[in-house]
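agent> fetching stored inputs for the pyridoxal-5'-phosphate docking request
agent> found them:
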Amino acid sequence: MTASSQGSIQVPSWPVHDDAEERNLLAVLRSGAWFAGMTGSDHGTQTVHLEAEFARSQQASHAVAVANGTAALEIALRAVGIGPGDEVIVPAYTFIATASAVAQVGATPVIVDVLEGDLGLDPDQAARAIGALTKAILPVHVGGQVAEMDRVRRLADDHGLFVVEDCAHAHGSVRFSVPAGGFGSMGCFSFQHAKTMSGGEGGMIVTEDEQLALRLRSLRSCGRTDPTDPYLHGLLGWNYRITEWQSAVLRAQLERAAEQRARRERSAARLRELFRDSVDGIVALDPAPGTGNHNFYYFTLVLCEDLLRRVGKDALLHAVRARGVPASGGYPRPIGDNPVFEHVPVRRLPTPVTQDLCRRLIHLPHYLLLADDATLVAVRDVFRHAALRREQGHTA
Ligand SMILES: Cc1ncc(COP(=O)(O)O)c(C=O)c1O
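agent> prediction call returned; pasting tokens
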């Protein structure tokens, strides 16, 4: 792995790549088969291999590769017939795609609050949000922490709802002994550049249901329903196919994914130990009960009220970034507060926990957890120093 110097902290570079990506990309180039085929993953292509390998890694029966994670969510909702007149329950602390995919299929997102402990959808509030129009629940595994899926699953079963999981952050994550994407009808992953597997862009849907997999394959490739007749269109589809370049890179990324995740888990445990009782006003979020594997797309820090008053989140972020720590302030507002929903239908429940988390959370990116121990100690020291500065009369 190469390391680049940003300020005083040596931040591992991302994405990681080596001969494996180069070999696979050259193989695609020389083969002349740059396109995954009319079906979106024709026999023998990189994409058909990626689908099989990713399905195995997620213990899923079927995996369907698509252009990106947003498309994955949209196709998944279409595949179970969600459309105008339907409501889909989504959490407030997430990226816009979780709700915009619902709106794109003509349904109404119903935005509920999240739990402080795992940052995922609050099943109690979701229960109160269920009405006659509710068709599905779309939980998000924020930062790689799988949401309270035992309760979400039970709620969905009790009310006859579909569960579509937004697993954009959760490659390889496990909770209650079930891999992300395995609790619901489908799990939707992203391979956008920042994710723990990068294809530049890319997405994948996993499912246990063979009929759903067939529908997904049709919807991602212009609604084709017969691989031998490319001009027969049985469904209203779109071109959401992934390219062979992306699949070639992603196959190499997948080979490293489990080892990198294990390394991030070790680093996360070490960073939590380093932060424990040693950085005034900052608490590292523990994995939620029942968590097995954790992808650690984010390593999450929670700022206490006293630190927010003394230093402030923006000043703290400014100070640590100046020392090269690539910290982010997380989602700045509940998704329902975005101006898009001034003209796109939405139903919002009160989201006080999300509002509070938007003020208090800082996320460190996954690639920082690929750093050596000295760097992890230095990261802690940078936060410790930044948390003290204002108090001592310095400007941040
Ligand atoms: C929670 C969440 N859902 C969905 C997406 C959409 O993925 P993509 O950027 O691949 O369309 C993202 C990503 O960026 C995300 O963070």
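agent> quick read of the result: Residues 68-70, 94-95, 97-98, 140, 166, 168-169, 190, 192, 203 surround pyridoxal-5'-phosphate (CB under 6 Å).
agent> awaiting further instructions
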